[in-house]
Amino acid sequence: MRKETGAVKILLFALAVTAFFFAVQTWATTLTLRSSGKDASDPGDWTWTGSELGDNSDATYASAAGSGLWLRSDIQRPFIPSDAVINSVVVYVRARQTGNEYIEFGVYCAASGTDSTGSNVPRPGSSFTDYSNSFVTNPCTNSSWTITDIENLVVSIGTIRSGRWWSGEMQVSEVWVVVDYSRSSLQVLQNRAAVDSDVQITVSAFFSDDANGNSSTDFELCYDSGCVSSVPVCSGVTGSSPRSCVFSGLAQNTSYWFRVTHSDPDGVNGSNPQIIGPYRTSNNRVIPDPAEAAVESSTTITVSAPFTGDANGDSSTTVERCTDSSCSSPVTICSDLAGSSPRTCVDNSLSSQTSYWFRITFSDPDGVNTSNASNPQIIGPYTTPAPDTTPPVFGGIALAEDMGRGRRVRLEFDAATDESPPIKYNVYYNLASSWNDADWSQNNVLRDVNTRPGKTYQLKTYLDGLEEGEEYVVGVRAEDARGNEDTNSVTLTVIPYPRMMKSEGYYLVADGLAPASGFNRPSQVFGDDVGGTLLVYTWVSSGLGFNAPFQGRYEVPSVITPGKAYWVYNWQPGNLLDDDYGSRNTSSQTIVDLLPGWNMIANPYHKNVRLRDVVVTKVNNPGAGDYTFEEAVLNGWLVNAVYWWNGSGYNWAAYNDNPPAKLVPWRGYWIYQSDDSVQLQLKFTRP
Prior knowledge:
Helix content is 5%, strand content 42%. The chain has 687 residues and is mostly beta strands. The strands form 16 sheets. Strands 1, 2, 4, 6, 9 and 11 form a 6-stranded mixed sheet that branches. The chain has a 5-stranded mixed sheet with strand order 3-5-10-7-8. It has a 4-stranded antiparallel sheet with strand order 17-16-19-21, with no helix packed on it. It is elongated.
């Protein structure tokens, strides 16, 4: 069976027809009329009134053979609304042929008793296929269709001979008619509105039908959902759907409802009148609020201009400074201020102990609503105080801590207070040997450093670019917006140590502390820092051999000794060698024995020791005295270099470099004794 999208299917069974049409009469715009069954008693002039034809399976059909034979279908009387206007009639047939037949079909008008033949359609094939003809007017009368025409409609399907000899037959399994019509009565659809601006709303009334176009629509403005109080704005609006009414001159930021009423002498179907809403206008006009100002210092006043409205953000604000309440000689401080509320203007060019007024003016192409405050508005007087000459109250530096990153330390302190914010912090620093405590301006200074919340104290900052192993003196002073700096004399010392193990692998390290008694075994010094299996090795030379292979062997030390270096494998990247097992070496001198060949040595103290300051003693020549490192090199006992592992290769430095080589705490070094006829010792003096 053919299915028509959007068409209402009306099967012409006597009992079902009436109920079905009654349920859909209001909404139908197309009507599908079907016949069903066949009567084989009169093969030349059949009227299909039984129940066989049209069972959707093509299993039953009416047939005709020979030229000039016709099949006719009387359509039972349909229900068409009395105000219907017929737009077109389309006749469908589902047919096939078993021989050399062509099929044509037309419309027969019972009222006139005349058959009207439509156009020929393509020759049917051997399977059932749908064919159709469309008729905008009644072909029997050549006039517009009427409801009576539809009620008396008869569909005729005829065959014509296609050749001299006749063969086969035409078979028709289904005939149906689709009637397209519109109503004279109006069908109300859902009405809608659109907010055009902060003062205008357009209401649109949607409907269908009204084929004869004799309806009209009224629009009313309402102030509540029940439309108790209403104002007619547009009356008797005609034309096609949708009909519109523009409501202008509305209040901003206000909710409105609208009542839409359709009128039609042919009748109105659907909810009528309709009340729609609420629709709220926008708030594009700026609404100034009372402005205010705050005296920040003897030379600075900040003006704040709050507002509401300005939904489209196209307003601006101008602030002028005045010396009297009438603002007779204004000076523009800020113009065309934009952005959200409040808009602020900082005037920092004032005189101390002077009174000022300010004029604030809002501009908006949508208009300025002065319901909350006048525009422009003048505020004041505001009197500036005497100049601030008092420095901030500040306790100075409270913590200076090595970060274990070689060249960075962390500084912490509590925040200062002052009447002239904002407060900035200046960091003074210098080598301990060069620190000038009497005049901090002679030291290095970083002004207005960045701060953030501290770990122990309120604020923290960082000092970078320091030299590893050097002792620094650090102090912090606070300065207010008027340039008043406090004069606290609190200082701390800090030494940046290069003791960060950055990744997994072997590191050449040293013991930077003097282990406490009974805590000098490798597991006690390094165990909790590196994780995993403890791997610690030291080198024991057995002779000269500058180039690989070295003369000697690696051994696992039983104790960790200051002045010696060790290979340590790090299993947990990022850990530091800690200082919880000992204290700083306070011995005035530490002696380290050397062997011919390569030796692993270290600085036994907590501060850098210059290589040229290391004293060399010739043990097997008693009474000869000590030698400088330079003399030991010139005598051919030592190579003028120390080597250290950087994680992927070796760096080296000499005692006479510029700057001269330094032995940094916590770092291990290689040194080469190039003469096996002497027994040497290195003497380190506490820095």
